[in-house]
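Design a sequence for this backbone.
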C-alpha cells in the first residue's frame, strides 16, 4: 500500500509542478483559477487516506492565488493609469500649438530669428556671458556684463552676431563659478507624438520633449 501511495505521490508531484507552472500566469486569472481548482481536486483525490492533507494547506494555496490575482489587477490598473496619463499629456501638448512656452535648453536651432530667454544666478557676477558654439566648434560670446543675483534676461540676434543658420550649443559662463541653465521662450509650431511622449517643435529651439517645458502662457511670452 505504501509503495502504491509513493508512486501516486511521485506521479502527482510531477504533474502538480507542471500544472503550477502553467497556472501561475498573471495574464490570465480565469485560467489560473480553473487550474487551482483542478489541482485541489487532484490533491484530495490522490491523497493518502492515512495522512490526509491539512485543510490549512488548501487555504494557504488559495491565499497565494488570491495574492497573484490581486497583483494582476494592480498591474492592469497601473497600466491603464499610464495610458490615461499619456493621453492627457498628449492632449495638453497639442493645446500648446501656437502658444509661447519657456523651455530649458542646451542647444538652439538658429534660423535668423531673434531668440529671447533668461537664466538665474544664485550670486552676483562681475562678468557674465552666453557662449554659442556651432557644429565646427567656433564660439561666439554674447557679453552680458556684471549681473546681480536673480533672473538675467538675454537676447540673441543671429543677424547682428553674424551667425549662419544651424544648431548651436549654449553655455552660460560667469566669474562666480556658476553655470546656470539657459531658458528660452519660443512659439510652439507643432507637436509630434513619439514613443517617449509628445515632442514640441519650438521656434528658435527645435525639437523639445514635453517634460522640458518650464513655463507656458503670458509669463513665457513676456520672457
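Sequence:
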Amino acid at each position: 500500500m505504501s509503495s502504491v501511495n509513493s508512486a501516486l505521490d511521485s506521479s502527482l508531484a510531477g504533474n502538480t509542478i507542471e500544472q503550477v507552472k502553467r497556472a501561475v500566469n498573471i495574464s490570465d486569472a480565469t485560467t489560473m483559477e480553473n487550474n487551482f481548482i483542478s489541482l485541489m481536486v487532484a490533491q484530495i483525490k490522490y491523497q493518502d487516506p492515512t495522512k490526509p492533507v491539512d485543510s490549512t494547506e488548501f487555504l494557504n494555496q488559495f491565499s497565494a492565488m488570491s495574492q497573484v490575482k490581486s497583483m494582476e489587477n494592480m498591474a492592469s490598473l497601473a497600466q491603464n493609469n499610464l495610458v490615461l496619463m499619456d493621453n492627457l499629456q498628449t492632449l495638453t501638448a497639442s493645446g500648446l500649438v501656437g502658444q509661447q512656452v519657456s523651455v530649458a535648453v542646451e542647444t538652439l536651432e538658429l534660423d535668423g530669428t531673434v531668440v529671447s530667454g533668461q537664466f538665474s544666478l544664485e550670486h552676483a557676477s562681475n562678468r557674465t556671458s552666453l557662449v554659442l558654439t556651432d557644429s565646427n566648434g567656433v564660439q561666439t560670446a554674447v557679453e552680458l556684463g556684471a549681473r546681480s543675483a536673480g533672473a538675467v534676461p538675454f537676447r540673441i540676434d543671429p543677424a547682428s552676431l553674424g551667425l549662419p543658420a544651424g544648431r548651436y550649443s549654449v553655455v552660460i559662463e560667469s566669474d562666480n563659478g556658476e553655470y546656470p541653465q539657459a531658458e528660452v521662450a519660443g512659439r510652439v509650431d507643432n507637436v509630434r507624438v513619439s514613443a517617449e511622449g509628445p515632442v514640441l517643435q519650438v521656434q528658435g529651439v527645435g525639437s523639445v520633449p514635453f517634460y522640458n517645458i518650464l513655463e507656458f502662457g503670458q509669463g513665457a511670452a513676456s520672457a
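Residues 55-94 form the longest helix (40 residues).
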